[in-house]
Automatic annotation (TrEMBL):
Stretch forming the signal peptide: none
Gene3D superfamilies: Apoptosis, Tumor Necrosis Factor Receptor Associated Protein 2, Chain A, Cysteine proteinases, Phosphatidylinositol 3-kinase Catalytic Subunit, Chain A, domain 1
Keywords linked to the UniProt accession: Hydrolase, Nucleus, Protease, Thiol protease, Ubl conjugation pathway
Any Gene Ontology CC annotation: nucleus
Reactions it catalyzes: Thiol-dependent hydrolysis of ester, thioester, amide, peptide and isopeptide bonds formed by the C-terminal Gly of ubiquitin (a 76-residue protein attached to proteins as an intracellular targeting signal)
Annotated ranges, domain USP: 217-529
Location of the MATH domain: 69-198
Identification of the protein by name: Ubiquitin carboxyl-terminal hydrolase 7
Organism: Hymenolepis diminuta (Rat tapeworm)
UniProt subcellular location: Nucleus
InterPro entries in UniProt: MATH/TRAF_dom, Papain-like_cys_pep_sf, Peptidase_C19, Peptidase_C19_UCH, TRAF-like, USP, USP7_ICP0-binding_dom, USP_C
Similarity section: Belongs to the peptidase C19 family.
Length: 1271
């Protein structure tokens, strides 16, 4: 009976409605089963065939709880026929557990009153409180006759057991008629004998201790890095390589950018750690972002790229020869003439061998095909130079195999019918011991130089791929000591397994039920038997350099402290400290910007948050006496206002753990009058017309019941004005609009910490005449010589400031605004200001220049403003809006959890510091070669004297910004829209939003980001912890605007028509894509003229313009053809998967043979096709034909034109003359001649088709990325 006859398989019934009996008389035995079973299998795959026994496999220790296999053999008592009793509920009988893979396994018998059958199930880990565990297993379920031992009922199951599906089997295992038939003997004296053989993989999601049970630890999967984990484990178990990696000099390297150091750390953790190891530091050193960790890649490609990178990094060190010595072999390609003494050969090195799976049954068949001798004879004779055409033999022989031999099994290939890659799951056998002596050149078997010649190998590792070409999963089986004791490395889980699990079970498709259809070996690692001791030499902890051990131990301690601090963060309150110096430098109406203030932090236990304890702790933190300062609590309201309070120790809610305090130095306290208890703290900002901005002007405590007539004198003294200068005061109303207020009414309904604004009242008479444009501003009277003048502020002249905040252009000839009007307009413009990053479109990794302008500027207003920063004529500047990537909304996390005495907001006190925090300082596009350019760009961006590490961070930030927001279309200068419309800015674009820390935390991606001081150049929205709560602030990133200096004025440039053309010279293999600007009312001759100025031509310099469609030449345009008649759909190039022009315009340099045509000559179009003339591909071309000449001469010209060197390949091509109504095959005979009449009499000109298979498609689909290690 087949599995389809059983309607219900693996049911999970409601246990509350069943009787569950634990049979007290069950007899439990435990013995080793013979057949190895593999997991990761389809749960609905079942068979009735017996499991094959493998007596050669190693036995398991019955007392080992981690053993991979075991037997549950039970004799159940009290088994009665349910039909003879009144069974109202389902009856369940469970056996005692047997421990396999550290999980309890039981046999479950199920008797139901609704069915006339007994169910038999295998149950796993039934009482576990965990909900996310899984364990893949295969088992053989048997019910054995007690009177006829040869009679037994057997079924096989495969299943992945989990918390929600922890049993699997058959509800209809045996019918009651068959079970209770005395002749069968299944039930004798109410006893039933059940026998279950189980094999299981190591479980996931449980407390599986890989180190304890195997001596190895796994690698954590970052998302899709199973291919990386498998390759790393195979390399790690190559002990001589691991030993060499530890010996690489990395003392001065940084782990975030050094691949050798990160690899040392990974290998060190694999050797010394007790639990699974992460690979984030390693992938970060590759230059990969978090997104790269979720991209699936090829294991063989990674292995090759990683070994290449390591070999380059080892050059000049004591271990520079280790990789070539271990992995490099040598082969020779030869062509040997049969009848003359002539041979051509070329020696080359190899690091791995790719063996064809399709059509081969085993590894020896693949090697024989690899070295198969090809005979060159007949029409395919070899040109032996002076010997002429000769019969010859062509082949490959191996000169030397390396000690560690990597074999890639070619299981992925391109399928021309489905037009996609497919995986070949054919059965392909490979042995444990491999003899390659038959494939080694005879004379090299005994090396003359004394070096060993390796021919006998044993299998050391098998990389297995499960899935198809779209994706899947990698695991690796390793025989680490070369003793045929195998372990399975499946990401973070390592377990022992049997040889058959690693070898036979991974052959691929076959009749063996152990082999799964889509799970098979992809890479094999063989080690030479004679090199076993050298390659697998022991690597003990004392062999690791002490400098590495101490460094990694220190890093571990730091990481452990950070982890503990994070775990106990809820027990502490974070105290953020502000100082008056933090209020300086903010030009807008706010007292400070919430996202930019440099907050100092310390931790205090929540139960100790009292005013006395706070004062004491802050005094210790600041190393000063508590009598020297006074504390004010600072809060941030929902309306965006800052409030100050003398009550500094309110009760903190359980969800709140942040307290922000302003530390006011008592020596700087300023009162107007005598200090009283009812004083109100007030801050002042002065509108300086000389720089058209608001400047911080200190604070004062104003008594509510005293006269404050001395306030103007205090403030005029601070700003350096005559003491009798009249002042106009403002305060914000409920709508956040500035309202003028009289001096006498300043303290009407005051608020602690309120900000007042003032400027010179030009409407009042002045005793001393003042020129507002020559004023100097004293920011703080307490700090001596702290003045800011117009010349001290780069690029912030009055003209620039007014241009940035006013919609109307201001010239020196225009009448100046009054101070009151300028202040009102400036205040109103603050809500419209937007941060713009001006980036050079043509300069690689330009960090850009950050400016703040009104979003209501028109195109030419913005162009004029930008030209002042870019030192150019605005009419010769062209601007481009960016294309936003799909991930533009992802926010940038600055830091993780708060740490005591750590600055939450900046990496250093100044952006020119050499300290760059925890950011990544690499540049994927080669920042090292751009240091000087980046230095200039850094200076232009305000980073004067930037260090090399900061310059590198700038380059990385610029690259990330370029990737996220690449240049898009140009902005038309004729547009009447504003900057807001150009950039598609929402009304609340510049708003800082609050998010809960759990929602906005991007701990996985923050490792890829540059330091805080340059993070604004990445185009990532920035996330910083709020200084006022345990929420995070999301700060929008500046919008990028690309610019380019043009040769022509922008207005003239916009009148040009932009056309893309592909230029081909005399060789069709050399293509140059050009973007041309020509007059829209011009002709084809204008395009050809532009091409001549960009391309390198031969002596003739004769060009022609073609229209390409479907990889065919549709027409050749005459030079007088008007451009306006060219179809708009072809002015942009479109390519196929092989990057050949599918449709578009193409400019050719006319071949010499087609320049001067004689009478009877004709130039016809030709194209490549596969099977059908409609399936064209490749690069089309033209060929000259002459009436009456043989087509064999035409074919020779085609071969020369296409530069086809392989005779056999060209001889396989077929030639067809394609007309409107039919295809005429051209026989491969010399007597077939050209008839030009056929080629000219039809209205649609025929074309010559060349039929052959298209070249091999690229390995990756257009959406996939190849593996690149940037550092």
């Amino acid at each position: 009976m087949s599995a389809k006859d059983f309607p219900s398989i693996g049911d999970n019934q409601n246990e509350e409605a069943m009787e569950v009996e634990l049979n007290p008389n069950a007899i439990r035995t435990s013995e080793t089963i013979r057949s190895p079973l593999r997991a990761a299998i389809e749960s609905d795959t079942m068979a009735q065939t017996n499991l094959s026994d493998s007596p050669e496999d190693d036995s398991c220790d019955d007392n080992d709880p981690a053993r991979p296999s075991g037997v549950i053999d039970y004799t159940f008592d009290d088994i009665v026929d349910p039909r003879t009793i009144d069974l109202k509920k389902e009856r369940r009988i469970l056996s005692d557990p047997v421990i396999i893979r550290c999980l309890p396994w039981r046999v479950l018998l199920l008797f139901s009153p609704e069915r006339a059958t007994m169910g038999l199930f295998l149950q796993c880990n039934d009482n576990s409180p965990a909900h996310n565990w899984t364990c893949s297993a295969r088992a053989k379920l048997e019910c054995i006759s007690q009177s006829k031992p040869s009679l037994r009922k057997t079924y096989n199951i495969r299943h992945t057991f989990a918390a929600k599906e922890n049993d699997w089997g058959y509800q209809t295992f045996l019918s009651y008629d068959e079970l209770f038939n005395p002749d069968n003997g299944y039930v004798v004296n109410k006893k039933l004998h059940a026998h279950v053989e189980v094999e299981a993989d190591a479980p996931h999601g449980t407390d599986w201790d890989s180190k304890k049970y195997t001596g190895f630890v796994g690698l954590k999967n970052q998302g899709a890095t199973c291919y990386l984990n498998s390759v790393l484990q195979a390399l790690y178990c190559t002990n001589s390589l691991r030993k060499a990696v530890f010996q690489m000099p990395t003392e001065s390297d940084e782990i975030c950018t050094s691949v050798p150091l990160a690899l040392q750390r990974t290998f060190y953790d694999l050797q010394c750690s007790e639990r699974a190891v992460g690979t984030e530091k390693l992938t970060r050193s590759f230059g990969w972002t978090t997104w790269d960790s979720f991209m699936q890649h090829d294991a063989q490609e990674l292995c090759r790229v990683l070994l290449d990178n390591m070999e380059n990094k080892m050059k000049g060190t004591d271990v520079e020869r280790i990789i070539p010595t271990l992995f490099c072999g040598k082969m020779v390609s030869y062509i040997r003439c049969k009848n003359v003494e002539y041979e051509s050969k070329r020696e080359e090195q190899f690091y791995d061998i790719q063996l064809k799976v399709k059509g081969n049954q085993n590894i020896h068949d693949a090697f024989k095909e690899y070295v198969q001798v090809e005979t060159l004879d007949g029409d395919n004779k070899y040109d032996a130079g002076s010997h002429g055409l000769q019969d010859a033999e062509k082949g490959i022989k191996f000169l030397r195999f390396p000690p560690v031999l990597y074999l890639q099994l070619m299981r992925f290939q391109y399928d021309f019918h489905s037009n996609t890659n497919v995986k070949i799951n054919d059965r392909f056998e490979f042995p444990y011991e491999l003899d390659l002596s038959d494939y080694l050149l005879e004379k090299t078997r005994q090396q003359t130089d004394g070096s060993p010649s390796y021919t006998k190998y044993f299998l050391q590792a098998v990389l297995v791929h499960s899935g198809d070409h779209h994706g899947g999963h990698y695991v690796v089986y390793v025989n680490p000591r070369g003793d045929n004791k195998w372990y399975q490395f499946d990401d973070d889980v390592v377990c022992s397994c049997r040889p058959k699990d690693a070898i036979e079970a991974n052959y691929g498709n076959g009749s063996d039920p152990d082999c799964r259809a889509f799970t098979n070996a992809y890479m094999l690692v063989y080690i030479a038997c004679d090199a076993r001791e050298e390659v697998l030499c022991p690597v003990t902890d004392d062999m690791i350099p002490f400098s590495l051990t101490s460094r990694f131990c220190e890093e571990r301690n730091v990481e452990e402290k950070e982890r503990l601090a994070k775990d106990h963060a809820h027990e502490f309150a974070t105290i953020n400290l502000l100082f008056e110096e933090d209020f300086h430098g903010f030009e807008d109406a706010e007292l400070f910007r919430i996202n930019d203030i440099p907050v100092r932090s310390l931790k205090i236990k929540r139960q100790e948050v009292t005013e006395a304890k706070l004062t004491e702790s802050i005094g210790e933190f600041l190393k000063c006496s508590p009598r020297e300062f006074q504390l004010w609590r600072v809060t941030y309201t929902k309306t965006g206002n800052i409030e100050f309070s003398r009550k500094v120790t309110p009760s903190l809610p359980s969800t709140e753990s942040v307290l922000t305090l302003w530390v006011q130095q008592r020596s700087r306290a300023i009162f107007t009058g005598s200090p009283t208890v009812d004083c109100y703290l007030c801050f002042f900002k002065y509108f300086d017309p000389s720089i058209c901005t608001l400047c911080y002007c200190g604070f004062a405590e104003l008594p509510a019941s005293s006269n404050i007539e001395f306030l103007p004198e205090l403030l005029t003294g601070r700003v350096g004005l005559p003491l009798t200068t009249p002042l106009a005061f403002y305060r914000k109303d409920a709508s956040l609009t500035p309202r003028r207020v009289d001096l006498a009414n300043i303290l009407r309904k005051p608020k602690q910490g309120e900000v007042f604004y003032f400027h010179v009242d030009a409407n009042q008479p002045m005793e001393v005449e003042i020129n507002p444009l020559s004023l100097e501003v004293c920011m703080d009277p307490i700090v001596e010589n702290n003045h800011t003048s117009l010349g001290d502020i780069p690029n912030m002249s009055l003209q620039l400031r007014k241009m940035a905040i006013n919609v109307d252009q201001l010239d020196e000839s225009q009448e100046a605004f009054s101070i009151a009007d300028a202040f009102t307009q400036y205040f109103d413009s603050c809500s419209m200001l937007v941060d713009i990053l001006l980036v050079d479109k043509l300069r690689k990794s330009d960090p850009g220049i950050l400016i703040r302008v009104s979003s209501e500027l028109s195109y030419w207003e913005f162009a004029k403003l930008a030209s002042c920063y870019l030192t150019g004529d605005p009419s010769y500047l062209r601007f481009f809006v960016p294309h936003s990537s799909p991930t533009t909304g992802t926010a940038l996390s600055n830091k993780g959890s708060n740490v005591a005495a750590q600055d939450l907001h900046v990496s250093s006190n100044t952006p020119v510091s050499s300290e760059t925090g925890n950011g990544n300082n690499y540049s994927p596009n080669g920042a090292i070669s751009l240091i000087s350019e980046q230095s200039r760009a850094a200076k232009a961006s305000g980073f004067n004297g930037a260090s090399a590490s900061l310059v590198g961070a700038l380059a990385n930030a610029a690259h990330q910004g370029l990737v996220r927001e690449p240049p898009g279309p140009p902005v038309p200068s004729t547009s009447e829209d504003t900057l807001r419309h150009f950039l598609q800015l929402p009304p609340t674009y510049a708003t800082i939003t609050f998010q809960s820390a759990s929602q906005s935390s991007v701990t996985a991606s923050q490792q890829d980001r540059p330091p805080m001081c340059v993070s604004k150049y990445t185009s990532y929205p920035r996330i910083t912890p709020s200084p006022f709560s345990n929420t995070n602030l999301q700060v929008p990133a500046p919008r990028r605007v690309y610019y380019a200096h043009t040769v022509l004025p922008v207005a003239q440039l916009e009148s040009l028509k932009q056309i893309q053309v592909a230029f081909f010279g005399q060789k069709l293999s050399e293509r140059q894509d050009l973007v041309l600007g020509v007059c829209g009312d011009g002709t084809v001759a204008d395009i050809l003229t532009e091409v001549r100025s960009h391309a390198s031509l031969t002596e003739s310099k004769k060009l022609r313009l073609m229209e390409i469609r479907r990889n065919r030449i549709e027409q050749i345009f005459p030079e007088s053809y008007p451009l306006e008649k060219i179809d708009e759909s072809i002015i942009e190039l479109q390519c196929d998967v092989n990057d050949n022009i599918r449709s578009g315009l193409r400019v050719d340099e006319v071949p010499k043979e087609e320049e001067n045509l004689e009478q009877g000559d004709l130039v016809i179009n030709a194209a490549h096709f596969n099977k059908s003339p409609d399936d064209t591909f490749g690069v089309p071309f033209t060929v000259r034909v002459r009436n009456g000449e043989p087509y064999s001469d035409v074919k020779k010209r085609i071969r020369e034109r296409l530069d086809v060197a392989n005779d056999k390949e060209f001889d396989a091509w077929n030639f067809v003359l394609v007309t409107k109504s039919k295809c005429i095959a051209i026989p491969n005979k010399d007597d077939v001649v050209v008839d030009t009449e056929i080629l000219t009499k039809e209205s649609i000109k025929p074309w010559l088709g060349v039929e052959h298979k298209p070249p091999k498609r690229p390995r990756y689909a257009p959406s996939e990325k190849s593996i690149i290690i940037h550092n």
